[in-house]
Amino acid sequence: MSLTWIRTHEWDTQKWRDTAACRDLDPDLFFPVGSTGLAVDQIAVARSICSQCQVTEECIAFAIATNQESGVWGGLTEDQRRPLRRAYQNGDKSVISVS
Ligand code: SF4
């Protein structure tokens, strides 16, 4: 089986990734395994970094629109994003609001 992502929106026209607070950090920090034990500390550190990031809106919008199930994006955990992803997939595009 192959997966194909058909790009329907250019997400990085403002080059938001260039100013991401996590740009030069270990990506594994944002993708903890599980949600208990060591992962709790890892999630807290990731969310702390996100809280200082200037592109959280863009990051969350990207994660929801591209259906990112795993990891911390824009300071939101997998559990926190799940209802937003579901709403977006059900047609509520207002859940992503990039200003
Ligand atoms: S909000 Fe967090 S995960 Fe998203 S770009 Fe910023 S630091 Fe990285």
Question: Any overview of this molecule?
Answer:
By secondary structure, the protein is mainly alpha-helical. It has a domain at 27-95. Helix content is 36%, strand content 0%. It has 3 helices and no strands. The protein has helices at residues 38-51, 56-65, 78-89. Helix 2 (56-65) crosses helix 3 (78-89). The structure holds iron/sulfur cluster (SF4). Residues 20-22, 30, 49-50, 53, 55-56, 59, 73-75 line the site of iron/sulfur cluster.
Brief overview, please?
This protein is mainly alpha-helical. Bound molecules: iron/sulfur cluster.
Residues in helix, %: 25-40%
- The number of distinct helices, counting runs of at least 4 residues, comes to 3
Structural class designation:
mainly alpha
Span between termini? 37 Å
Order of helices and strands: HHH
Give a short account of the largest sheet: none
What's the Cα radius of gyration?
Answer: 14 Å
